[in-house]
């Protein structure tokens, strides 16, 4: 109807003009008003109607819901059903809102995750590019691999989304997305952690989750740090929780406080956490945080190597500490030291231990020993039999030279005979053994010299020692010496019982005597080969040679001839016309003319080579003695020679030898065994045996002293008498002592002049005794480090008595004139009259005029009081001396 009126009015308006229009407007107004009687809702909103309605409502309220009037005094209430419905509706509305909000948040998170993934992908690509350029560190390698997997083009994103959805559904089960979620979320610590991480970091969570296993296997620290970083990094996101964020934040704060309390308790954690927090702030929300490898501080025990002696300064440098600190520490312990104070290894070790530093004793490399060592290792298949090298030893006049000559003369062919013009210290002979031609090399240097010199570098140059014993004389001191030399060098001994042509010869007696020296002849049940020979008649020589050859077979003497030559110098000299001449024994390989030889401090190219028959030869094979020309200087006998590739190499060898040799000489002179240093050497573990060379005036003494000495031993060291004999200490004894680093003990004997010279030069400790127990006591004390010092008399001046004074207080004063030197208080004096010594004792006091003085010098007058001696006369001579401690 309204529509109709509207249409009608508009038509009328159009038809009747403006006046009508006005009227119509009024009509329209009245007709459209709800107050108009024609209005369809007329009366509905009128005051009257309103009032009526209210009245009706009041009436209704007085009725029960089912329309019955309420009893007076009761009010109408909303039914429970209706209330429930209202609440349900409200809850549904709230739920709807909450779901919408969560959906919104989820959307936001997905977007954030996408951004993260993109960023991670970008980083991975960058890292990959870096790893292509540089060699990858393990950490980068693993991480880049993981990231690459997370963003791989095909399926990478897909699996990423899928995994993210899975994780989200597991991290946020739908039942948890309720209004109480935030509260529960914050209360549940474990869930809160994971939930935080998984829900807020989105894509990063995925990437990191993907990294996690790899990172764990790589270094647990990485994972720990990552989780902490992520946990903090998501904090700002919590604020987006709208009205729930407050509760969430409260939970975070309480969590933080708990962490803080924990941090305060453990300082280390505190600083660690703080560092991370700083990092989080820097990186900001949503940024990809590259996990850092936390360097594990491993407790490493430092160790240093120390020499036997070290200065404070050197020690500080080795320990990387300040010298001042060490000096201070020692000072506080009552030790006053300076930078240059030398410390023993033990002292230095004690200091180092205080700095938690372990010490090791510096191992001294014997450069020369290394240098002379044969660097080439011969294989068994390359070895070929070589002639034995034999040395002939024995007592004086027992026939050594005669035997050697006889062997040489009977074994050289007529062609060679005339050729023997010179001795080169060794020669070779051919022997027929069982119809087979065999060669034997003889060294014709005096036996013990050959041993001592050859043993200089520890080279075993001789294979067999022929001990010559005259059948008519038996074992003599030098025979024993020779036995001991051979034994000390571990050389096989073949006994040649010589002069069997003599009527007084007694072969059996010699064999019996030999038994005292552990040389038991085969026919006496032993293994020592004894060959009766006569150098004069030549009898038995063939048999001797055969036995030598057989013994060589037993010893299986072999060498590789196809390699660079290596051997030993037999002797060497400077020849006026030919320069340096060295006689060598080739032990391995083949020496050729033109080879460059290095031998000790000498070197040079072999210019010429001469054999034992004086012939020029081009090459020398194992066990061959040769004379070579061409060295730049004269080498020492016993020195090792080696063939080098070129002169430069040989020169370098020689240079090292010279420099090291000097150093070694200093050290060796210090290291020589002496009773004074014995204890230190034992303690340092340098000594296990104490070798002794014993000489006495009679055999009875030798045995008595030897037996007593050999009984001396303690836990660390044992006395070993390596040689004992009757007679003065000679050159040979000293040489043996040098070669074996032994102490020489003389009982009622003295060293001869040469022996004394060598002993002094070579620092050999020679001890002389005339009472057995004193010798034993000294060695025992030395082994315990308690050997008393030795004092030596030192004359300091002479005086002549010119006047006698008598004093009631001091007795007789010898008014004397000091002719030379000085007279010293506390010194000793010997008074002689007409060459006869009347007094030897202490000087009680020395006066100059009336004053007591410490000393009076040459050409001065003084008063001397002798302790306990008054029978002094004018003209008496006084020799003043002091007792000085001598270093032994
Ligand atoms: N009857 C006899 N005399 C011999 C024999 N061998 C050596 N002689 C003699 O013994 C003496 C010493 O001989 P050498 O060969 O000089 O003895 P050595 O051991 O070499 O002597 P040194 O070189 O001084 O150590 C000489 O007069 C030889 O003639 C032998 O078998 N029978």
What does this structure look like?
Among the domains are: 303-361, Arc Repressor Mutant, subunit A, CATH 1.10.10; 388-556, P-loop containing nucleotide triphosphate hydrolases (Rossmann fold, 3-Layer(aba) Sandwich), CATH 3.40.50; 559-672, Translation factors (Elongation Factor Tu (Ef-tu), domain 3), CATH 2.40.30; 686-786, 3-Layer(aba) Sandwich (Rossmann fold), CATH 3.40.50.10050; 790-886, Elongation Factor Tu (Ef-tu), domain 3, CATH 2.40.30.10. Mean pLDDT is 72; it is low at 1-35, 132-247, 261-283 and 412-422. The longest helix has 54 residues, at 80-133. The radius of gyration is 57 Å and the shape is flat. α25 (731-740) packs parallel to α26. With 888 residues, the protein is of the alpha+beta class. Helices cover 44% and strands 23% of the residues. The protein has a seven-stranded antiparallel β-sheet, covered by helices on one side. The protein contains 27 helices and 34 strands. β10 (492-498), α20 and β11 form a beta-alpha-beta unit. Bound molecules: guanosine-5'-triphosphate (GTP).
């Amino acid at each position: 109807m309204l529509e109709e009126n509207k249409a009608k009015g508009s038509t009328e308006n159009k038809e009747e003009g403006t006046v009508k229009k006005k009227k119509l407007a009024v009509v329209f107004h009245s007709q459209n008003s709800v107050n108009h009687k024609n209005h369809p809702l007329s009366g509905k909103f009128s005051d009257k109607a309103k009032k009526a309605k209210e009245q009706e409502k009041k009436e209704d309220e007085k009725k029960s819901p089912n329309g019955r009037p309420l009893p007076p005094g009761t009010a109408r209430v909303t039914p429970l059903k209706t209330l429930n419905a209202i609440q349900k509706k409200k809850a549904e509305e709230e739920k709807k809102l909450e779901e919408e909000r969560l959906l919104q948040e989820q959307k936001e998170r997905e977007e954030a995750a996408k951004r993260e993934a993109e960023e991670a992908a970008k980083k991975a690509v960058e890292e990959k590019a870096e790893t292509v350029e540089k060699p990858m560190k393990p950490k980068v390698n693993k991480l880049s691999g993981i990231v690459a997997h997370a963003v791989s083009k095909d399926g990478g994103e897909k699996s990423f989304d899928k995994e993210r959805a899975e994780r989200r559904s597991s991290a946020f089960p739908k039942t948890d997305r309720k209004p109480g979620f935030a509260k529960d979320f914050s209360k549940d610590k474990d869930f809160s952690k994971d939930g935080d991480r998984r829900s807020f970091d989105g894509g990063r969570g995925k990437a990191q989750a993907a990294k996690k296993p790899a990172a764990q296997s790589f270094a647990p620290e990485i994972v720990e740090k990552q989780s902490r970083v992520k946990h903090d990094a998501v904090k700002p996101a919590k604020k987006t929780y709208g009205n729930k964020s407050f509760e969430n934040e409260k939970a975070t704060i309480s969590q933080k406080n708990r962490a803080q309390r924990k941090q305060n308790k453990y300082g280390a954690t505190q600083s660690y956490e703080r560092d991370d927090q700083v990092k989080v702030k820097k990186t900001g929300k949503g940024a990809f945080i590259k996990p850092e490898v936390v360097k594990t501080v491993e407790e490493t025990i430092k160790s240093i190597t120390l020499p036997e002696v070290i200065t404070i300064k050197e020690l500080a440098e080795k320990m990387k500490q300040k010298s001042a600190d060490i000096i201070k520490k020692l000072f506080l312990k009552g030790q006053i030291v300076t930078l240059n104070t030398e410390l023993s290894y033990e002292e230095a070790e004690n200091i180092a231990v205080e700095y938690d530093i372990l010490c090791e004793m510096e191992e001294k490399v014997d450069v020369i020993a290394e240098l002379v060592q044969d660097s080439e290792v011969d294989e068994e298949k390359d070895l070929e039999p070589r002639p034995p090298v034999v040395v002939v030893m024995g007592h004086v006049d027992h026939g050594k030279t005669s035997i050697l000559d006889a062997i040489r003369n009977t074994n050289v062919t007529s062609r060679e005979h005339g050729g023997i013009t010179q001795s080169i210290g060794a020669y070779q002979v051919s022997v027929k053994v069982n119809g087979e031609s065999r060669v034997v090399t003889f060294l014709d240097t005096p036996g013990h010299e050959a041993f001592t010199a050859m043993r200089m570098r520890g080279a075993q140059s001789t294979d067999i020692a022929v001990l010559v014993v005259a059948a008519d004389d038996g074992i003599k001191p030098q025979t024993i010496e020779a036995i001991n030399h051979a034994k000390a060098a571990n050389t096989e001994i073949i006994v040649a019982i010589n002069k069997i042509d003599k009527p007084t010869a007694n072969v059996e007696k010699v064999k019996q005597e030999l038994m005292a020296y552990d040389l038991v002849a085969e026919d006496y049940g032993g293994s020592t080969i004894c060959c009766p020979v006569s150098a004069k008649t030549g009898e038995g020589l063939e048999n001797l040679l055969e036995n030598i050859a057989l013994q060589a077979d037993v010893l299986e003497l072999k060498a590789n001839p196809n390699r660079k030559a290596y051997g030993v110098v037999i002797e060497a000299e400077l020849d006026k016309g030919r320069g340096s001449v060295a006689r060598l024994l080739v032990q391995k390989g083949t020496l050729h003319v033109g080879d460059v030889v290095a031998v000790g401090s000498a070197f040079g190219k072999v210019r010429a080579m001469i054999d034992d028959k004086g012939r020029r030869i081009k090459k020398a094979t194992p066990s061959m003695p040769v004379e070579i020309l061409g060295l730049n200087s004269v080498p020492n006998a016993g020195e090792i020679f080696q063939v080098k590739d070129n002169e430069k190499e040989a020169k370098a060898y020689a240079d090292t030898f010279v420099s090291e040799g000097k150093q070694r000489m200093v050290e060796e002179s210090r290291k020589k065994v002496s009773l004074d240093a014995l204890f230190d050497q034992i303690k340092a573990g340098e000594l296990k045996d104490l070798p002794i060379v014993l000489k006495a005036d009679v055999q009875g003494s030798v045995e008595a002293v030897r037996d007593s000495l050999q009984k001396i031993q303690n836990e660390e060291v044992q006395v070993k008498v390596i040689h004992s004999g009757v007679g003065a200490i000679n050159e040979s004894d000293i040489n043996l002592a040098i070669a074996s680093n032994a102490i020489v003990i003389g009982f009622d004997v003295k060293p001869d002049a040469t022996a004394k010279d060598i002993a002094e030069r070579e620092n050999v400790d020679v001890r002389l005794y005339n009472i057995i127990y004193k010798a034993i006591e000294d060695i025992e004390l030395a082994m315990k480090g308690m050997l008393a010092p030795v004092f030596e008399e030192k004359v300091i001046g002479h005086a002549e008595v010119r006047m006698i004074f008598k004093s009631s207080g001091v007795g007789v004063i010898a008014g004397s004139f000091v002719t030379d030197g000085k007279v010293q208080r506390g010194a000793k004096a010997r008074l002689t009259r007409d060459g006869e010594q009347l007094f030897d004792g202490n000087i009680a006091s020395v006066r100059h005029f009336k004053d007591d003085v410490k000393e009076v010098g040459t050409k001065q007058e003084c008063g001397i009081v002798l302790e306990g001696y008054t029978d002094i006369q004018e003209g008496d001579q006084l020799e003043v001396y002091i007792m000085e401690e001598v270093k032994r």
